[in-house]
Write a structure and sequence with these properties.
The structure is a homodimer.
Chain A lengths: L6 H13 L3 E2 H11 L5 H14 L3 E3 L7 E3 L6 E5 L5 E4 L18 E12 L1 H5 L2
Parallel strand pairs in A: 4-6
Antiparallel strand pairs in A: 1-3, 2-3, 4-5
Helix pairs in contact in A: 1-2, 1-3, 2-3
The structure holds a DNA duplex (25 and 25 nucleotides).
DNA sequence: ATTTATGCAAACTATTTGCATTGCC
DNA sequence: GGCAATGCAAATAGTTTGCATAAAT
């Protein structure tokens, strides 16, 4: 299980860092293919999984949508438009103590938490 | 667009109420098929969508998993085991004021929010 | 030389949709 | 009778996987 730094791996990591936030696997793939037409979707997915596991990038699981990948930045929350599906960052303090509010976790060991706000984005509000 | 109360619709609603919480479309379908072998998966999905829209049941979008459907109960938060994928209720007060903590929503109109804790459930902790 | 990683295609999971038919109101 | 809803199957979206080949160490 020795890591091997392939061009493809490097490309995926660089592209996630370049796109900064909320890029889906497909967007990352699209961005890479432009320059490297031979890379395969499977490889992009495999590397996104690998890099999330090593902690080099962060995976954001979107309810009702495709997973997104972020470069490492401060933890923050998200809002998703229920109409267009777009994900936005929310300007709100991260609540590291939130997990202490749990009265009884029934033996569940908590590792992290996400807050996802749902609503209508400005764009969609305009066109409705 | 006049609602028509079919046997299938009634069955889906009753089954969601019976299973109480966190039943996936598939679990709901399985439960109904036992008694009514002719019902189709498509119909179950269509009715789950319909009943969520009318507000008769609640849809819970699970990041990285299948959507769940709840009968109407008090709002609460969830924890999902990153190993087995099971969803649990969390015994923690609902925070109706959470949305007020947002400093700048950039014109985003917030309708609701979810908090999802991630971690390892007691079962999976045992077997690792 | 070894063995991890790739490319490709096929498989898979969750869900939606087109269409002819059924059956509620 | 009219139109909403069904059953079925095919389509879709997102992602994973098996396998032979390529390439990093």
């Amino acid at each position: 299980m020795n890591r091997r730094n392939t061009i493809q791996r490097t490309l995926v990591l660089e592209t996630v860092n370049k796109l900064k936030c909320h890029a889906t696997a497909d967007e990352i793939y699209d961005s890479i293919v432009k320059e490297h037409p031979n890379i395969s979707r499977g490889t992009v997915y495999r590397n996104l999984n690998y890099l999330s596991e090593t902690g080099e990038i962060r995976r954001l699981e979107i309810p009702g949508g495709a997973d997104c990948f972020d470069h490492l930045c401060h933890k923050h929350y998200h809002a998703r438009c229920i109409q267009c599906g777009h994900v936005f960052d929310v300007d709100m303090e991260y609540l590291p103590n939130l997990e202490k509010n749990i009265k009884d976790a029934h033996g569940f060991e908590i590792i992290s938490h996400d807050i996802i706000f749902k609503g209508i984005c400005p764009e969609c509000k305009k066109s409705s």
